[in-house]
Design goal:
There is one protein chain. Helices cover 8% and strands 28% of the residues. By secondary structure, the chain is mainly β. It has one domain (3-128): BH3618-like, CATH 2.30.290. Strands 1, 2, 3, 4, 5, 6, 7, 8 and 9 form a 9-stranded antiparallel β-sheet that branches. The chain starts with 9 loop residues before the first strand and ends in a 10-residue tail after the last strand.
């Protein structure tokens, strides 16, 4: 997780699908050195997502934001962005999946954030978290 997010209130503007009634979240490490983190609602502490940088699981992952979304997020340069993906934790953990179709895009300078559904990509909401080349650890 990006260290600048430790004390930043994330404003998703009700954009997380299925959780539109919640706008404000905070990010926190699950444990030091882990690639996994939590994004937790500050409005309802029971609402918490396990997240990972999609690039940790899929180094070739890429997408482009349209001009409208860049403006909505207030992004001035690429370094302002942090991208996270929601993990669906399954038992056993090796069967867990990651949502690459709808990443969480965060402006780390302002906290303005959105879940963005990508169009025209070959990603899904249930991509294997552990591919054969990353088996056993992200």
């Amino acid at each position: 997780m990006h260290p600048l997010l430790q004390n930043v209130k994330l404003d998703f503007g009700g954009s997380i699908y299925g959780f539109e009634q919640f706008s404000y979240f905070k990010a926190e490490e699950i444990e030091a050195g882990s690639v996994f983190a939590h994004v937790q609602s500050v409005e309802e502490s029971e609402i918490r997502f396990v997240v990972i940088s999609p690039f940790d699981a899929y180094p070739e992952y890429e997408f482009q934001l349209n001009d409208q979304m860049i403006g909505e997020l207030g992004i001035a340069q690429a370094d302002d962005i942090l991208v996270l993906s929601i993990v669906t934790v399954k038992k056993p953990f090796e069967l867990s999946t990651v949502n690459l179709l709808a990443p969480l895009v965060i402006n780390i300078k302002t906290g303005v954030s959105r879940q963005v559904v990508l169009n025209g990509v070959n990603y899904s909401v249930n991509m294997p978290l552990f591919s054969s080349r990353t088996e056993g650890g992200c």
